[in-house]
Amino acid sequence: MRLDIPHEQPRRREGSDTASGSSGDRNVTRKPPENPILHRLKSLEDRSADRRPPRPEAARKRAEQPRDVPRQRRRPVASPDPRRPARSIGNIVGLELRPEEKQLLREAGRFRVVRTADLRETLYNGKARPLENDLRYLRDKGLVETTHVNLRRDGQRRTIERVEVVTLTKDGRRLLLKQGDLPKDQWVYAGLVKPREAEHDSQIYRAYQKEAERIEGRGGSNLRVRLDFEIKSDVQKAIYAERKADPKRDMAEIKEEVAERFELPLVDGKIQIPDARIDYDLPRQEGQDASQGSRTGHEDIEVLTAAYHAGHLRAKAQAGFRNYASASDRASLTAKIEDDHGLMEDILDL
Q1: Structural domains present in the chain
Q2: CB neighbour class for 22 (10 Å; exposed up to 12, middle 13-18, buried from 19)
Q3: Residues 8-29: tens digit of each pLDDT
Q4: pTM over cut 0.85
Q5: 127 to 88, 130, 134: CA distances (angstroms)
Q6: What number of H helices and E strands is found in the chain?
Q7: For residue 225, what are the β-bridge partners?
Q8: What is the spatial distance between Cα 214 and Cα 322, in angstroms, rounded to a whole number?
Q9: 199: buried, middle or exposed (CB in 10 Å: 19+, 13-18, 0-12)?
Q10: What residues have CB less than 8 Å from 186, skipping those under 6 apart?
């Protein structure tokens, strides 16, 4: 039995040019390759002819660029925080600080470490909430640091008492110096260098406030503070310079000359350095020539604590400093110098 299977005619390839009825020969036409030089010339011609306008996005960005606004046309922009001053459009670099915040930075910078309780009384009229808000803001900006220090036990308290203190950061110190609100030659400190002495050093600010009130009551003005760090540095540099100039010179003679130069007392062959020296200007006297400049004065203050031994207390008393002590330290100090009650009469209350 025979089966007839139909045969399908072969399909022509696209692009083939075979004549109908031909014997099957295929003549395929091929496109010649493009000349790269002609292609490049054509693209350059199209680019020069196509002058497209700038894209809307690029034009919008150029339009949004800030223009230089004349100073007289600038208007202050209200701050979202009602406690913050209005910020000027032309002063977007830096921070806008309230007067209390600026003063807080100045006090922390001048005294290195200050108790928040003392700042609350002197700068915020005893109000704790505004001080907490300002400290939170200054901490968030990286300008100050707050920490708690343990107070020494006096034998009466069973629990350890802690106080909060404030110090400047390096960024806070740079900002304070940049603002230029400090008296001339006023040192600024940053960081807590000696945590073990923080209890003692944090009381210097309180002693300064009491002494500053007395100085200003006598007509003193433009008060500057020099802590023992700065005074010791100047004294040591002076002693080193004298010894280098004449190595054979007697050390006692050098100390006596340096002490006289810096107006510091010399007790038992040692130059006594106060915790802080307050320099101030005095009003001109009647008939004083203006070309002579203003008169100046200084007061040396010392904070006595229970850590002072009897010999140290007597040296400070002989030095003639304005000695201060807290009520909690007076009992221990009295026990140490019970054979010399006259010393306690010269210690002032903090």
Answers
A1: 94-200 (1.10.10.10), 203-285+294-350 (no CATH)
A2: exposed
A3: 555 555 544 444 444 445 555 6
A4: no
A5: 29, 6, 12
A6: 13, 12
A7: 278
A8: 12
A9: buried
A10: 110, 224, 225
